[in-house]
Design brief:
Layout lengths: L10 H12 L4 E4 L2 E4 L9 E8 L16 E7 L5 H11 L5 E6 L2 H16 L4 E6 L20 H13 L4 H13 L1 E9 L17 E4 L10 E4 L3 H13 L13 E8 L5 H17 L3 E2 L3 E3 L8 E9 L2 H8 L2 E2 L4 E2 L26 H33 L6 H21 L4 H16 L1 H18 L7 H19 L9 H16 L4 H18 L14 H4 L5 H23 L2
Helix pairs in contact: 2-3, 3-12, 4-5, 6-7, 9-10, 9-11, 9-17, 10-11, 10-12, 11-12, 12-13, 13-14, 14-15, 14-17, 15-17
């Protein structure tokens, strides 16, 4: 278990402070994460990686000359917010564009995707490569659904070496995708990890058993079996990985691969070496030529007891980039000429709290929106346990607490925005960033997307009309579907959001005032959320346990319907007060 901490709430912040203090010659802290403390070549591509904390040396430990230019650091096992990603990218940008790379988890996809769109709007080219190396998480026909685990390192390393060599953004993306498609990993776990201050682990594996294919956050694996010997484990992992040879490999015999044997937190190096002894024998017997293998902790999960094996199938270009030198706090290869330190005063760090001028009408609308966000906080507080119970049936049970963190943060941000005379658009933008920052995860990303869509639609100049709100909700619906890739019937928030948006737009287009139009749309959304009980989830962490969720409505759709209904009461009250 995690034993050394002060206040668990401050664990990530204090760990980051200590990490930076220990490695000032390689990294410096910026809002949302860390960047190199040394200069990069002007005009070169910046490789920014990231994800939830708790996986050291991923992600901050891989920042330094020859590897990542920056790492975005979310809360423990929670994706960083879009604002954090944006901040790190702005500080790390060298003028040649930005490549974002991270494990393929829904929250990360949403948050990094939002940041990418914002950077592009500001004229900074930005592309994404989400790592998909975990063979246990989806079939080969659905590679795009696979998780990223220890294979993160191969993609990050190749991308960064290409950037260091002067490749253009287009070429960095090309080799990163090639590395991604040639990386295969599989993991096992003997027991779960414990968050700081928690009384028990996030999950347990039955005594004497090993979970095969378990994800690094406890996502379901493919089977359980008796704990094997070290040699038997090596044979299991090697045999599974050799069953799936990437495209472009004509023959296993003579193929060149790098091998990563990764400890997840509690397995000691000596144990890993015992396993690697047999891994090396098996791969050599199969005819593979092993190139610069790695054995140790590469992507961990706090104190999880487990290990993973990665095969990175090389070609001439990928091998050269894999072997290129780098110097980071946790990972080093070869030797480099040290780069000079950066001038921290010249970093481009955005002022997220800036309040632009707003019209009186927009400031009045902001005061109403502040009440709506307060009502959102209240209804989430009142239902936090029920939302968590619903989510625990097939997910990880954190929907309620995640929504509560986000709503509380958004409420505080909205209160501050009104005090500083913000317009409606700015209030919603600040609330979106606060919700996204504090909640993390998929729900935090989705609510950040929705509030930001309303922000862009309402702006700070005009008095919002029912048409503004209908268009804002429609944009929120479109943006959530674009970023999250959810479709009707996938058993997500989208199953309530789409009918709400359509009903609201129809009523507004027919000339109804906002209050009755919103009420009509709420009734439709509430019924749609209830109807999700009959569906099986097709996205997110609930997907592997789809059967268990049948009979229970989707918690995201349910919380959305609750919030929309609570907001209607505020609209009614505001309408009565102004007539």
């Amino acid at each position: 278990m995690t034993r050394l901490f002060n206040d668990p709430v401050n664990f990530v912040d204090e760990a980051t402070e200590g990490f930076v203090a220990a490695h000032t010659q390689r990294v410096c802290q910026v809002p949302g994460g860390v960047i190199r403390s040394t200069r990069s070549e002007p005009g070169s591509v910046a490789v920014v990686i990231g994800g939830g904390s708790g996986h050291y040396p991923a992600f901050a430990g891989l920042v330094g000359q020859g590897l990542a230019h920056g790492a975005v650091m979310g809360n423990l096992f929670a994706s960083p917010s879009a604002q954090q990603v944006y901040n790190v990218c702005k500080a790390a940008n060298n003028g040649g564009g930005v490549l974002l790379s991270f494990g393929n988890y829904a929250g990360d996809v949403l948050h990094f995707g939002q940041a990418r769109e914002r950077l592009i709007r500001e004229g900074i080219p930005c592309e994404i490569v989400a790592v998909i190396d975990d063979v246990s998480s989806a079939e080969q026909e659905e590679l795009h659904k696979r998780r990223g685990i220890a294979g993160d390192l191969t993609v990050f390393k190749v991308a960064a070496a290409a950037a260091e060599a002067g490749y253009s953004l287009e070429e960095v993306v090309r080799v990163s995708r090639a590395a991604n498609l040639r990386t295969r990993s599989m993991g096992v776990a003997f027991d779960g990890c414990t968050l700081p201050g928690a009384d028990d682990a996030l999950f347990h594996v039955p005594d004497g058993k090993m979970a095969v294919g378990l994800g690094i956050h406890g996502e379901p694996g493919i089977s359980e079996q008796a704990i094997p010997t070290a040699d038997d484990l090596a044979e299991l992992l090697v045999s599974h990985l050799l069953e799936e040879i990437p495209d472009g490999i004509d023959s296993v015999h003579g193929a060149r691969t790098s091998v990563l044997l990764n400890g997840l937190g509690s397995i000691k190096y000596e144990e890993l070496f015992v396993v690697y002894r047999r891994v090396n024998q098996l791969l050599t017997e199969a005819g593979l030529e092993i190139v610069e293998p790695e054995v140790g902790e590469l992507v961990t999960s706090l104190d999880m007891a487990g290990a993973s094996l990665t095969l990175f199938w090389l070609d001439e270009e990928l091998e050269r980039l894999w072997k290129a030198p780098c110097d980071t706090p946790a990972y080093r290869k070869g030797s480099l000429n040290p780069a000079p330190p950066i001038d921290a005063s010249q970093l481009d760090i955005p002022d997220a709290d800036e309040i632009p001028p707003a019209s009186e009408a927009s400031m009045a609308a902001a005061r109403c929106l502040r009440q709506a966000i307060g009502a959102t906080r209240q209804v989430v507080d009142d239902n936090v346990e029920e939302l968590g119970r619903m989510d625990a049936i097939a997910g990880d049970g954190d929907h309620g607490i995640g929504m509560q963190r986000g709503a509380v943060a958004a409420d505080k941000a909205a209160e501050s925005a009104v005090d500083r005379q913000a317009g409606a658009g700015t209030l919603l933008r600040l609330a979106a960033e606060a919700w996204s920052d504090r909640a993390g995860g998929t729900s935090g990303a989705i609510w950040g997307v929705m509030l930001n869509a309303l922000s862009l639609t309402l702006g700070d100049d005009d008095e919002p009309t029912p048409t503004h709100y209908a268009r804002g909700i429609a944009k929120a619906k479109d943006d959530v579907m674009a970023f999250g890739k959810a479709k009707p019937g996938d058993k997500t928030l989208v199953d309530a959001l789409i009918p709400f948006s359509e009903a609201l737009s129809q009523a507004v287009d027919a000339g109804e005032a906002l209050a009755p139009a919103w009420q009509r749309a709420c009734e439709v959304a509430t019924q749609a959320a209830s109807d999700t009980a009959a569906l099986k989830p097709k996205l997110g962490r609930a997907r592997p346990l789809a059967e268990k969720s049948v009979g229970t409505p989707d918690p995201g759709a349910t919380s959305l319907a609750m919030i929309l209904t609570a907001i209607h009461a505020v609209i009614e009250q505001h309408t009565t007060a102004t007539t």
